[in-house]
## 1
Amino acid sequence: MKWLYLAAAVVAPAQAALRFGCASLTIQRLDPLVEPGRTPSSHLHQIVGGNAFQPNMTGDIGEQGSCTTCVFAEDFSNYWTAVMFFKHTNGSYKRVPIMANDALPSGIKGGMTVYYTQQDFNSNGNTKIKSFPPGFRMTVGAPTHTAEQTGLRFVCLDTKSTRFPELTEFPTKACKGGIMTVHHFPACWDGKTLDPPDHQSHMYNTVKNAFQNSGPCPATHPVRMPQLAYETLWDTAQFASMWPKDGSNPFVMSYGDNKGYGTHADYVFGWKGDSLQRAMDSSCMFNACENGKPLKSQVVSSMNKCAVKDFVGESIDGWLPELPGHSMK
Ligand SMILES: *[C@@H]1O[C@H](CO)[C@@H](O)[C@H](O)[C@H]1NC(C)=O
Ligand SMILES: *[C@@H]1O[C@H](CO)[C@@H](O)[C@H](O)[C@H]1NC(C)=O
């Protein structure tokens, strides 16, 4: 009994959970992971994180950046998703602005809420959570998908705090508080591959919805990594008066999808040194991880100031005759 107790104590769950804001870094047609070097890429993305972001990224970006839009000053990772547009019945498109999450400090410009949790909020499953290594990259979902995807959800917001129900596709009615897109990444790694050609086969997904207990990692992908998730809040409410009379959903993602099954997200790891591992080994929760306990953090004005140059130089605002990059449609 005593032995068992001691063994359990050694792997005692460290219950760190990170939830933090990252302001918008840039909104451009770039995709250094799936279309490296291509300027412009096929569709528009909204990107947050470190300023090493550029059309073709290689190496350890945690060592390349000089600023980040995230609250944790050592997190030079890049996080991105597609962008939402409103399609008017007259055929014109307008980009849907991104709202700040009211669970975060006020004043953050656009961007996303990023989570790194253990197996779930209540348990690490008695497994050490291993940080992603330098050079690690992955995607979840794909623009070509035409059926429901694991861990990728839409929430019709009543207020900014609404979190349920999670929908597998775009809401089909006007949402009073906007729409939230949620991207949960797989958390089980094969332990070997930093970034395979498909950006996905090195990872295994044990999650379905929300932040539920995700079960053990399989033998093929035995290494439990942090459960990474993004939340993005889209200010769709300002288009409510222009909702089509036939009741059809007027919102469309930047790759031309108004159903939502092609929703996808990208991640390039870029935490400096062992900072993410130190955080996951601690027991801090959310903003209690700031101010050196154990992570260095920065104020909102510094987050908002970090940016990258406009590599593409196309107009993405105002009423547009087509989605950026979709002129052949
Ligand atoms: C990206 O940069 C790397 C390193 O400089 C280079 O080897 C590679 O060919 C580049 N890829 C593209 C598609 O430009
Ligand atoms: C569509 O409607 C919007 C909003 O009224 C307007 O600004 C835009 O110019 C219209 N587009 C066309 C092609 O008429």
## 2
Amino acid sequence: MVEDKIFQQFVVNVKNNNDIVGTISNYVSVKKSGKNYMTNCPFHLEKTPSFNINPEKQFFYCFGCQAGGDVIKFVSMIENISYKEALIKLAGVQGIELPSGLVSNFSSEETDKFKIIYNMLSEASLYFFKVLASASKEAETARNYLYMRGLKNEDIEQYMLGYSFASPAKFHEAVLKSGKYSAADLERSGLIVKTDNGRYFDRFFGRVIFPIFDRSSKVIGFGGRTIQLEGSPKYLNSPETAVYKKNSAFYGINMAHDAIIRSKEVILVEGYFDFISLHRNGIQNVLATCGTALSPYHVKYIENNVNKVIFLYDMDEAGIRATMKNFELFSKPGLNISVVKFEGAKDADEFINKHGLERTGAVLSKAVPFTRFLVDYAYNKFGRRDIESKTAIINFLNPHLRSISSEISRNQYITMLAQELNIAEDGIRELVFKGMKTSAQGGGAVREDGGAAILSPDASLRRKTEIDLLHSLIQNIDFLPLFLAGVNPETVKSPELLQMLEMMLGADNLSLTEDMQSLCAQSEYAPLYNKLLAVPLASENASKYFEDLITKFNNIIRKEHIDELKMKIREAETAGDVETSKQLLQKVSTLQKDNV
Ligand SMILES: [Zn+2]
């Protein structure tokens, strides 16, 4: 078949022009190891790399999950698109045209999927830009709003800011009237929303528009800030589309990437205005996540390119919790993770507009390591007068101390805490490492690639089991009744598992089965949930595995109960209370008999 031959040649051409190491390193950080490259597998969870890239043969293979193939297979897997779509996408990246003899081999959807969306988004961006510059009263209000936020006309131009009219049909009616694009194209680009009765609305109306670009400066989506509508969300972003993945998008990457590579440092901010304020003032190595928590992909990009991360987040209680979660995702040794707290301004945008570049630079240069920041925060929160407050401090810091990937820095912080709190180092060490010991005594190999591997190796067995239960539930919602029958929810400590249970019990059936992903995305624990959602269970027999987990969990609870009783027995014995001690012993032996 001639066609087959042309197809094969096309595939070879695309592969020759898309080096597998370069392409994969767009998604994950790779390290050279002999002739090959290694990385932690993006398709299953692991702490030690088993994902192998062979540049000579141009293929990848994971020893952990057996995923493998060529560069096209990789892109299709990581983008969750078909092989043919990945082929077209990679061809497009290198400007390779689909041979005319092959056009019939592809459905028009496959060939035009990305081209149409990119064109559509780019034209939409231009449309919004022109609307903002137009003479209409609305546009003037929008421009005044931006001036009020400290922007000038040249900023509006540089960042291609736009405006969408307040009438929710104006944009898509204009597009449809032009005859260039269909309603389906608009929908696939995330620009319109279809209501239940089949009517269309513009996704963005009455909003200042921030186009979001990919690294090669192609528009992939939008963020919109409302300027007039009461009661609607302040910010709105494009939904997930074939080209917009919020887990891998960074606002500003097209402008900041070079500066980030040069300085080996990245400043992370929360919002579009934060980014623009810093960037237009000359601080260029800055990125914003697009209204979402950091994902493993974001973290890979950062670890791949820098030695220092500075979080410029709002450091209220919620911001601190979010940063603690983000911190857990990092594992690069020696990576410096610092935070900056702006005094007298609610965010970076306000601060730099008030105080200018020089003072902002001075504050940035005094960024505090996140752990030090957290310790001081705990001192303030709990006070450090008596033993109760000191215990509260250690308990608060405990999960964080365990998530520090370097043992050396963890020990340094423990020594520091002991000195500053004037308590024995051993006492702190015991509290922090208690979990590790239980885990070692617990016996049974902890699976390297299960949910547990997301946690630091010294997370307690209890925590590991709770996360494994969470993993199973996220993968199989049908297990919820089994869980509720086997586990007393009051014994659960993991806030992630508790919140998931709450969400699952509160959600309607449809969103549970159809859209687990957006349910997960709503949560502050989205990075963990997404990871668990992305990774299939390691076990063949999911329900047997789940039942074993429930047994394991209940045994842990029982053991904790026994330990507690034993402590009381010791107390009773010291006090000479033989009767109580006897009764408690009786309870212990009953509990021990129950142990499965
Ligand atoms: Zn793998």
